[in-house]
Amino acid sequence: MCQACRHQTSVTASTIFQDTRTPLTIWFRAVWYVTSQKNGTSAANIQRILGLRSYQTAWTWLHKLRRAMVRPGRDKLHGRVEVDETFVEGEDSQGIWVSHKAVVVIAAEEDGRGIGRIRLARIPSPTKDVLHEFARLAIEPGSFVHTDGLMAWKGLKKLGYRHKATVLLGRKDKNAASRLLPRVHRVASLLKRWLLGTHQGAVEPAHLDYYLDEFTFRFNRRTSRSRGKLFYRLLQQAVEIPPTTYRQIIGGRPMEESE
Fold first, then answer.
1. For the chain, which has fewer Cβ within 10 Å, the N-terminal or C-terminal residue?
2. What pTM, to 2 d.p., does this model score?
3. For residue range 41-70, what is the model confidence (pLDDT) as tens digits?
């Protein structure tokens, strides 16, 4: 109850739990299962484990939780960062393999010989304006950015980055890309394996951005030894973002049980 106007409202108002008819304890069980599974889970598994009557409910819950996996105002990558693009395929709402591929740009911090934090984003095309905007949003100025020789990456120094471009085209070594930009290519391989394994590749292009957010959330917290902390973090972010309805998620289209 508002102390000033005495208006009464629900504690779930303006959160992803707004207007839910399911007890929050069931929601919390779903959040726990999502965060406790190393590779995540599908809507079919959530429906079965929680005993939900509707697949649509489980599917919608997962998509709402994915929207909570991006923390508002999260820190940008910094230090030495590898950046490259990859292609991701998927299925449409009818379960048919689409011929066109989505372009996904990947940025990965160097952590010694390992990988630090990552950022992923689907882009319409790898043009200069698009790639530079990704760098601006994902990477702290002053960082050392290592890319391939794509002409679109030229001009990063004017944005305040130190830039190294490694030309990969024309090299006889077929593994040159993986050897010279090993971190982003490792992330790309893991992403595709995750999409095919956990979700059987059944990711519609319209929803790909949110799957990228989930993969990023999991990858950046892969070394956490506390599942409880991940559970707490996701719940914390779930009450910081505005609610999303099923209609908004599907964009007015009927949902198929493809996941």
1. N
2. 0.85
3. 888 899 999 999 999 999 999 999 999 998
